[in-house]
Amino acid sequence: MSRTFSSLSIRNYRNFFIGNCASNLGLWMTRTAQAWMVLEVLTHGDATALGWLTTAMFLPTLLLTPLAGTMADKFPKRTIMLSAQALLFVDIIILATLTLTHHVQLWHVFVLALLDGIAGAFDGPSRQSIVTELVSVSEVSNAIGLNSTAWNSARLLGPGAAGLLIALIGTGPVFVLNACTYVVQVVALISLDRKSMVKPPVFKSEKAGFITAVRYVAARPLLLILFVIALAMGAFGFNQSVTNPLMTTEAFGKGATEFGLLGSIMGIGSLFAALLAARRPRPRIRHVVIGLGVFAFAMALSAQAPSFLIFALLQIPMGLAGVQVMTSANAIVQISVSPQLRGRVMALWVAVVMGLTPIVSPIVGWVGSTYGARATVWFNAFWVVVAFIISSIYLYTRGGVELHVSRRRPWVDVQPRPEV
After folding, report:
1. Which of 83, 176, 343, 420 could pair covalently with 73 via S-S, beta carbons 3.0-4.6 A apart?
2. How would you class 228 by CB atoms within 10 Å of its CB: exposed for 0-12, middle for 13-18, buried for 19 or more?
3. Model-wide pTM > 0.85
């Protein structure tokens, strides 16, 4: 098997990866279908309501991250994930039933989105950090890259797949299909051979506090700059669930089919970047910064796209650069943290990537309602450009950072800044 997919030769990781891809795709399809229902069916174009829906989806991540990260380090990650997937499955079945029977109301969607957010808040840290328990030390970097690729690709491909399916079969059947993806993840988790899993480090009480992870990241410039990038991409770069429906309907006067095409076209670049990231033997900070620059430039151009075709074509470099940024950054963070703290640090990562969304999305919705669809893209692009400038200064002043991972020690505990 080629270097790109070498981790898939390990049965446990292969099963997990298949379920992970299905579950991630289903999660983002659900969120997109909910957004389309709120915008086009239940409110008939209320961008502010769309922003508040996104708040309901992601608010639990912001509030529950400390508890979720600590649990990921203290309890079996497989058990946490199974519980989260069960809740997601029940939620989607309820929503599908309400939609197909034409009884769905706006408050139903908001409540179920909030419950999905609670499940996702606990699922995320365990999903991110369980990878190192499924593969040998020599495959850790590749497995982390593939796992991150599955998440970020689903975040980009899910909205497009949902849009196309909504146009073809309607919102209700899409929810039914999404329920099947959670079943795939549950079966994959149950199939894991626990005897062959790498035993995680013992949870030490003196390092139990989540604040330990915050201090750990804050004291290390490399990690801190990666978290700044993740914050910009999560809160502003990956806001397509708000901006693309508005651009599709308001700026270009198109419908669900064209909205779905946007995500599919973005997936072309996403897939290429995903394969490239998994093939690299080790991630580099310069890949992150260059990708961030390409993403910011393409996003700014898309805000002024004169036609739907040009706007759609610009999704290709955005997809390529977006996955390169987040996959490489995620891999660097994971191999830069000792195993005892990995669950809590990855919980902090998930919170940074998605935690500001509940605050930002209503603002983006207000910007769209007040100034129009194009203003929402400009607003998001501005903050991504700011992150690019900050990270470029860091890269220039530090001369780049090389991480070397050995077979005996598959992580690099990067050193904190010197005391002054």
Report:
1. 343
2. middle
3. no
